[in-house]
Write a structure and sequence with these properties.
The protein has eleven helices and three strands; from the N terminus they run βαααβαααβααααα. By secondary structure, the chain is mostly helical. The chain has a single domain, classed as Rhopdopsin 7-helix transmembrane proteins (Up-down Bundle), CATH 1.20.1070. It is a multi-pass membrane protein.
């Protein structure tokens, strides 16, 4: 592979020294809150005897994916806010591309599994325990891991094909394929087409599947009791909020030509740092079972 660039310089969110200090403080707090929120959910699900259903089994992996997804970008952004030279080596850059796409894709697949779980629970309640057995749930999560790995390997294969011979300033706060394409010393039309086909198709296809599943679920709720409808709607609304928050920015970033827009970085901040922070809040504030289990667990520990 012909490349002369061995390291990149991340432009970051801003070059203003005062704003960088604010970025350090704000995002350090947000990152700590993200880790704490997702950690509390994971511990609560593992320790609680009342949260043993498949929905919470999948929620555990969603929280794990959120914590890891945020960790792929936030620590670097926080550290670079205090650094004069935001240098990242070629290997570190490629590792970040792989990790960000792996955990981002994992989150997408887990959201689909959670929607499937709600579909079975509401539309096929008599067969729920058979279809969503512990073994089948384990197999589904394993397939999600494998699918995420395949997607990330495809992304890193495309990234490794790019030759870099200067300049080496990435106009972003983390390494991703879209800003890297602008630095490549080659015609990137075909590679961008493959990226859009890969990432864009996963985002759009998954969103369509999720929307169809929620339409079917809502249609099926017409035959349920008022209390059953209220509980099912509460759960589905929580899921739907997470889906909109995550897929909207992803589709905006990964389904268009490699053009840079002023809002790109803020959109990326929203889905790489904002969504992993909001997910624990959404799933706890709108879920009485999680709140009850959390209260019992932490009161017992204290």
């Amino acid at each position: 592979m012909n490349k002369s660039v061995t390291k990149f310089i991340l432009f970051g969110l801003t070059q203003d020294a005062e704003k960088q200090k604010a970025i350090f403080g704000i995002f350090l707090i947000l990152y700590i809150m993200t880790l704490l929120g997702n950690f509390v959910i994971m511990v609560t699900i593992k320790a609680s005897q009342t949260l043993g259903s498949p929905m919470y089994f999948f929620l555990f992996y969603l929280s794990f994916a959120d914590a890891c997804f945020s960790t792929t970008t936030a620590p670097r952004l926080i550290a670079d806010a205090l650094s004069q030279k935001k240098v990242i080596s070629y290997k570190e850059c490629m590792t970040q591309v792989f990790a960000a796409h792996f955990f981002g894709c994992m989150e997408i697949f887990v959201l689909i599994l959670m929607a499937f779980d709600r579909y079975v629970a509401i539309c096929k309640p008599l067969r729920y325990t058979t279809i969503m057995s512990q073994r089948i749930c384990g197999v589904l999560v394993t397939l999600a891991w494998v699918g995420s790995c395949i997607h990330s390997l495809a992304q890193i294969f495309l990234a490794l094909r790019l030759p870099f011979c200067g300049p080496n300033v990435i106009d972003h706060y983390f390494c991703d394929l879209q800003p890297l394409l602008k630095l490549a010393c080659m015609d990137t039309y075909l590679i961008n087409l493959l990226i859009v086909t890969n990432s864009g198709a996963i985002c759009m296809g998954s969103l369509i599947v999720l929307l169809i599943s929620y339409v079917v679920i809502l249609y099926s709720l017409r035959n349920h009791s008022t209390e059953g409808r209220r509980k099912a709607l509460s759960t589905c609304i929580s899921h739907f909020i997470v889906v909109v928050m995550f897929f909207g920015p992803c589709i905006f970033i990964y389904t268009r030509p490699p053009t840079t827009l002023p809002v790109d970085k803020m959109v990326a901040v929203f889905y790489t740092i904002g969504t992993p922070l909001f997910n624990p809040l959404i799933y706890t504030l709108r879920n009485t079972e999680v709140k009850s289990a959390m209260t019992k667990l932490w009161c017992r520990q204290l």
